[in-house]
Write a structure and sequence with these properties.
about 15% strand, NAD(P)H-dependent FMN reductase, oxidoreductase activity, FMN_Rdtase-like_dom, globular, Flavoprotein-like_sf
């Protein structure tokens, strides 16, 4: 957030805990409306030009909470939320291979929903994250962060969903 705050972008932070969702169970029944939080997340995404998606790699894949949210958004017509949304992936992992596999999984899912996922992926070693109130990186990942964020900004400005 600090690196983007010095640019001309308007920032908003969203955490899955702010939008709890039930487990997605492929609702075919039109009588059961989707959860309001799924609509709220989709609505917020539809208003954005770009997204930095920070995910913690779990077993060489994306976390279940994130996948559940993507399922709900897709089920309620996620094409409007994701079409031409520029996404930079920042993966926090224990091993580079696990982080890369998690990024590949998310890239495939998001691309299928219509998002433009930029390269390079920002891969962060879990041990590089400080467990304190500042949230600062213990080791410098500046080059990786800068490359990923520059790609996001360049693509979002070029595609500009909002005008």
């Amino acid at each position: 957030m600090r690196r983007l705050a010095v640019t001309d972008v308007v920032l908003a932070q969203v955490h899955p805990a702010d939008y709890p969702l039930p487990v997605f169970d492929d609702p075919d029944d039109d009588a059961t409306p989707p959860p309001e939080n799924a609509r709220l997340i989709a609505g917020r995404l539809a208003l954005q030009d770009g997204l930095v998606l920070v995910a913690r790699e779990r077993g060489a894949g994306a976390p279940a909470l994130l996948l559940n949210a993507l399922e709900w958004i897709a089920a309620i017509g996620g094409d409007a939320a994701f079409r031409r949304l520029v996404v930079a992936l920042a993966i926090v992992g224990d091993r580079p291979v696990g982080g890369a596999l998690c990024a590949q999984d998310l890239r495939t899912r998001l691309s299928a929903l219509g998002a433009v996922v930029v390269t390079p992926t920002i891969l962060l070693d879990r041990t590089a994250i400080l467990d304190d109130a500042t949230g600062r990186l213990a080791r410098d990942h500046g080059a990786s962060l800068d490359a990923g964020l520059d790609a996001l900004l360049d693509h979002a400005r070029a595609l500009g969903r909002q005008g």
